[in-house]
Amino acid sequence: MSYRFFHTSQYEYLARRCTNLGVIAVTQYPDGERGIAIKEKIQGSDVVLVGGTHNDSATLELYDTACAFVKYGARRLTLVVPYFGYSTQERSVKGVDCLTRKGNVEPSFEVVTAKCRARILSSIPIASEGNRIILFDLHAEGLPHYFEGNIAPFHLYGKNIFLGCAKKISSGTPYCFASTDAGRSKWVISLSKEAGVAPAFAYKIRISGSETQVYDCQGDVEDKIVFLYDDMIRTGGSGIDAAKAYKAKGASDIYFCASHGVLPGESIHRIEKSGLFKKVIITNSHPNALMAQEMAPGFVEIHDIMPEVHNLLLNIE
Fold first, then answer.
1. pLDDT of 49-90, one tens digit each?
2. What structural domains does the chain harbor?
3. Could you tell me the pTM of the whole model?
4. Considering only CA atoms, which of 88, 107, 87 is closest in space to residue 97?
5. ∠ CA(271), CA(177), CA(261), 5° rounding?
């Protein structure tokens, strides 16, 4: 199958090595509006559009461009969304009574923004041979079920990337995969099973009535290389606390691994200055990953997800 690849403006770095790469012109106007033009005929083509939803502007650019591809005759449309924003807002607690500063009780109903974003992308008109969306290492495995209608979701896992890193770095030295908290335990168990090693887990302990929490851990990490895995790194606070617990139990080198390097602001400097990690290993699913590598050269290692995307495209034909 021959695909025509395109990308949104913030994901040029991810798609530029694809063969058969098409051109889209994006113009930003002084009033804040945006103009998008597809610079070639795409009627009858199988189009792959690479773009994330890491912010609202990127989401709308992805949506507007995808709609245009269908309007101008794409035979089939495949969206590749390396980072699905708001994935941590995948559920709500209905009817929660919140105590205000004045002592009043009022209801609070959270918006399930992840579902709203899925509905937006589900509303893209359907190409003659259908629409598909490829999502990479989602925070919650149920998120693909939020897509509605005739768009077919595929969840791509980056497991092979981190298994390969662990094997190369350890080079025969005992190692383990470890979680930052209980939320990642299933992923760590899966990685450990594939690698044939025993997992380790960190968990939170409330030490007082305040919001302060610390970590403890279980599992044999003594004199082992620890690959601390999370689906995303934001400020790095959870990883730093977990790494302290693993170090206290005798871990040797610790590598902070994550599928998505969100890393806003000075987060990467905070992680590096902690002195707990040998290296941060992330993919290029989020545009901030490249910025983090520039801010901390030699400390941040980035792996490309596009080979995994190409393999999936071949397998789902």
1. 999 999 999 999 999 999 999 999 999 999 999 999 999 999
2. 3-88+114-156 (3.40.50.2020), 159-304 (3.40.50.2020)
3. 0.92
4. 107
5. 40
